[in-house]
Amino acid sequence: MTRRIVMGPFNRVEGDLEVTLDIADGRVGEARVNSPLYRGFEQILQGKAPADALVFVPRICGICSVAQSAAAAQALGQAMGLTPPPNGRHAGNLTLAAENLADHLTHFYLFFMPDFARAAYRGRPWFADAEARFKAISGSAGNEVLAARAEFMRTMGMLAGKWPHTLSLQPGGSSRPLQASEKIRLFRILRGFRVFLERTLFGDRLEAVVALDSIAALDAWRQGRSGDFAHFLSIADDLALEQWGRATDRFLSYGAYSSEDGRHFAGGVWGGPDRRRPLNPADIREDLQSAWYAEAEAPQSPQDGATIPLADKPGAYSWCKAPRLAGQVMETGALARQVVDGHPLARDLVARGGGNVKSRVVARLLELARVLPLMEQWAEALEPGEPYCVYGEMPEEAEVSGLVEAARGSLGHWLTVRRGRIHNYQIIAPTTWNFSPRDREGQPGALEQALVGVPVAEGDDAPPLVQHIVRSFDPCMVCTVH
After folding, report:
1. If you ran DSSP here, which 8-state letter would residue 60 be given?
2. Helix or strand run (H / E) with residue 174
3. Is the pLDDT confidence value at 472 over 80?
4. C-alpha–C-alpha distance, residues 358 and 363, integer Å
5. Long-range pairs for 349-352 at CB < 8 Å and ≥24 separation?
6. Which of 19, 181, 428, 450 is spaced 20 to 30 A from 251 at the CA atom?
7. Biggest alpha carbon–alpha carbon distance for the chain
8. Tell me: the pLDDT tens digits for 279-321?
9. Where are the alpha helices (DSSP H) in 305-429?
10. For position 128, what pLDDT does the model report?
């Protein structure tokens, strides 16, 4: 006998989310993920001056507004033929990295770990410690991490003037140059954040965490450590979280953080018989079969796509589109970035268990350890008094894109300019990839696949394991729909 449960809204998830589960023989047989909020930013932007995108797109989201700004600035800079000077490139990397790392920290401590303080786990040997450390409001970690995060986010005031909805990121670099005294303050803030990560989260130097090259090395490293990362690993092993939440095992990354000759984290695709291969953005299509939008005869490139709401469309069940790469469902996020870039621990996690709850969280924390030293290098490379930005003219006609990596994964903005105005603007956010509905071939999205097979006890309408899987993707639903 099949029964159906509908979970939603979810707490500690950015935006509105509803998950429908069909349960058969005590397990999830099918899942459907609904993004129930339509926002319409693509339509808002039509007819505006291209530079106005820098004002509008940060307002898509209050926690990844810099990533939206970076994607728009990259697209506009491409249209104008601009290459930011080194200071502008370093400042842009620092600004985006500050937002991404703050997001990773917030997700781990305030969104993900409080689930283990639920009464459902009261009998587990680690429960008392997890409740004391991670329980919402009363747990000891909350005040510590909020103080560390607030101090770290002072970088945003220095680099961008404010956060969220900053306007410092420009097509040709950054409009907020740092003085020599500010560079010293920036170093002090980064040093303080390193101390917090090394003492509280990892219990070891960041470089030692980055050097971990396999699951065996990770297991050996965590023995006897008291940091919160080790605490999570113990919980994950007890609950066998590496066995749950596996989706496509096909990973997408546009590449993260600009360098003089490319990206610090390589872009590409990982999965299938070819393993890592180059990414061709021309292979991206938006399938609208199950989304409440008017659709063309076939899935379209986002450069040519449209966002025309059709709330009564038969068979549709979400405001989220279904982006596909050469017809395939992809997963994006910190795990995808680290696998595509080739970090050996991430590769070993995926080789042994694919993308799952544990591997996604480990990759997110690994990224904290990898990116902060890069931020220190970028800060050191800043040259006060040298240019931070170059300027140019917007052409009357353009078809361009801005592809960046937000904390949650691959974010793309596709811009078409006609007669000096925005003719079309399409956005594919990370959660659009991960939480997409079924396409016209019947392929479920990544989360829909990840939930199949999860055990659900009779009478349990809010299974904790389902919530762990959902939160392992770190969804941002307000970015997902437009």
Report:
1. G
2. strand 173-174
3. yes
4. 9
5. 349/215, 349/242, 350/249, 350/251, 350/270, 352/215, 352/242
6. 19
7. 71
8. 999 999 999 999 999 999 999 999 999 999 999 999 999 999 9
9. 334-341, 344-353, 357-381
10. 97
